[in-house]
């Protein structure tokens, strides 16, 4: 007789069904470095599904820094930051991140997901409130589930709704608004100026998750608060090193007292091993490049503008994106898997995003740009996307702009 757990896992059939149809789109093994072209099943595929926005993950300067760190410090730290796992380069990286984001101090964690778990779970208590944009990242939501405080969501980027939700909360309670700087699937930017103005009215604090904004917007890529010139109005900035910063790990930047508090309360920091030496050294090297070589960010935006123009010209529905993250709406789960698989056959890698990550009628291909793409690669990918969409008869294709 099967146990209840065996029954539950056997009843999960979504992935099996997609596999049976030959269109299962996840865990595709890549046999090369994360660049604008990758090798999958021995074939060259254009990569338009990467978060390496600045295209630095295979940069010789960063790879050399990682190798040197392995030579000097070995491959792991064998402990948490709290006890035996703090290296001098962790502290150097914290100083660099604080300076880069324009905050007094910073604290690094082993992943961005852990940052949000640690920060969301420890800032507020039983009679306090965490107020989230409904499209906030999963790591923020999971962090709030570990918190004892109440969680309220407002409609995506709707600051009137935010105002309404805040206006009924008790004056004395701690209220913390948490938003993604650039939203990870939609590609639009948080309306930070309005959020700051609402927060000020109700004495609320603000956390911005800059996972997708660092290296992308703001002064030299310093992120969302810098983009709006509101660094002093944002209380905490969280982020990851796994995207533009070409490594693995994450951080929170804030005033020194908040960082001191988090050092002693964020359980995902205290009870988890620290960033590997090579990961930390890679981020320091990536920051060296980002701070001194503006062409990476310039190229990213040239490519983004060009891709948006071509996609709109093809009549594809890309929503109100404002960043290198471009959703191409399919609005049907199965068709999203199908076009992802057909595109891979055609030599283009894109990410499918289906329900429950987004509502089923908003399922989409997540198309993302890198600074290192060529215009030729962008043209080739968009031509193939357009061809595949027509072949599948995707209904929401708009009349091309001519
Ligand atoms: N926040 C956002 C908005 C993200 O998109 C991600 C990763 N996709 C994370 C946090 C987590 O970052 P990491 O990959 O470093 O765990």
Brief digest:
By secondary structure, this protein is an alpha/beta fold. It has helices at 4-10, 14-20, 60-73, 88-101, 112-123, 138-145, 159-167, 192-202, 224-227, 256-263, 267-270, 277-292, 295-313, 333-345, 375-392; strands at residues 37-40, 43-47, 105-109, 129-133, 150-154, 175-180, 205-209, 236-240, 250-254, 325-329, 348-349, 351-353, 364-368. It has a seven-stranded mixed sheet with strand order 3-9-8-7-6-4-5, sandwiched between helices. A three-stranded mixed sheet has the order 1-2-11. Strands 10-13-12 form a three-stranded antiparallel sheet, with helices on one face.
How would you describe what is shown here?
The protein has 402 residues and is α/β, with parallel strands linked by helices. It has helices at 4-10, 14-20, 60-73, 88-101, 112-123, 138-145, 159-167, 192-202, 224-227, 256-263, 267-270, 277-292, 295-313, 333-345, 375-392; strands at 37-40, 43-47, 105-109, 129-133, 150-154, 175-180, 205-209, 236-240, 250-254, 325-329, 348-349, 351-353, 364-368. It has a 7-stranded mixed beta sheet, with helices on both faces. The protein has a 3-stranded mixed beta sheet with strand order 1-2-11. Strands 10-13-12 form a 3-stranded antiparallel beta sheet, covered by helices on one side. Helix 5 runs parallel beside helix 6 (138-145) and helix 13 (295-313) runs parallel beside helix 15. The longest helix is centred in the last third of the chain and has 19 residues, at 295-313. The relative contact order is 0.16. The structure holds 4'-deoxy-4'-aminopyridoxal-5'-phosphate. 4'-deoxy-4'-aminopyridoxal-5'-phosphate binds next to helix 5.
């Amino acid at each position: 007789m099967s146990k209840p757990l065996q029954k539950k896992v056997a009843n999960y059939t979504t992935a099996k069904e997609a596999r049976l149809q030959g269109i299962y789109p996840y865990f595709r093994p890549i046999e090369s470095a994360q660049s604008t072209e990758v090798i999958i099943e021995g074939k060259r595929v254009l990569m338009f599904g990467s978060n390496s926005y600045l295209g630095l993950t295979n940069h010789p300067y960063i790879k050399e820094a990682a190798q040197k760190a392995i030579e000097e410090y070995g491959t792991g730290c064998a402990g948490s930051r709290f006890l035996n796992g703090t290296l001098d380069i962790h502290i150097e990286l914290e100083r660099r991140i604080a300076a880069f984001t324009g905050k007094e101090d910073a604290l690094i964690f082993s992943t961005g997901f852990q940052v949000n778990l640690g920060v969301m779970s420890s800032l507020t208590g039983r009679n306090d409130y965490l107020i989230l944009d409904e499209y906030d990242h999963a790591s923020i939501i999971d962090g709030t589930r570990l918190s004892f405080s109440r969680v309220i969501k407002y409609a995506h980027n709707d600051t009137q709704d935010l105002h309404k939700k805040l206006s009924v909360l008790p004056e004395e309670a701690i209220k913390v608004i948490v938003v993604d700087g650039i939203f990870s699937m939609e590609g639009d930017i948080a309306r930070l100026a309005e959020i700051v103005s609402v927060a000020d009215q109700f004495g609320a604090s603000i956390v911005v998750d800059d996972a997708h904004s660092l290296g992308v917007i703001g002064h030299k890529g310093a992120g969302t608060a810098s983009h709006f010139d509101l660094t002093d109005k944002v209380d905490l900035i969280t982020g990851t090193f796994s995207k533009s910063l070409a490594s693995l790990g994450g951080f929170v930047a804030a005033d020194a007292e908040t960082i001191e508090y988090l050092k002693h309360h964020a359980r995902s920091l205290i009870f988890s091993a620290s960033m590997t030496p090579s990961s930390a050294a890679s981020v320091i090297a990536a920051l060296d490049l980002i701070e001194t070589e503006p062409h990476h960010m310039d190229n990213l935006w040239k490519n983004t503008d060009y891709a948006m123009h071509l996609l709109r010209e093809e009549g594809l529905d890309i929503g109100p994106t404002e960043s290198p993250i471009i959703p191409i709406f399919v609005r049907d789960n199965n068709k999203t898997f199908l076009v992802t698989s057909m595109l891979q056959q055609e030599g283009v890698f894109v990410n499918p995003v289906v329900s429950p990550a987004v509502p089923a009628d908003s399922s989409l291909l997540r198309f993302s740009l890198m600074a290192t793409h060529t215009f030729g690669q962008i043209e080739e990918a968009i031509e193939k996307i357009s061809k595949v969409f027509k072949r599948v008869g995707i209904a929401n294709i708009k009349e091309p702009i001519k």
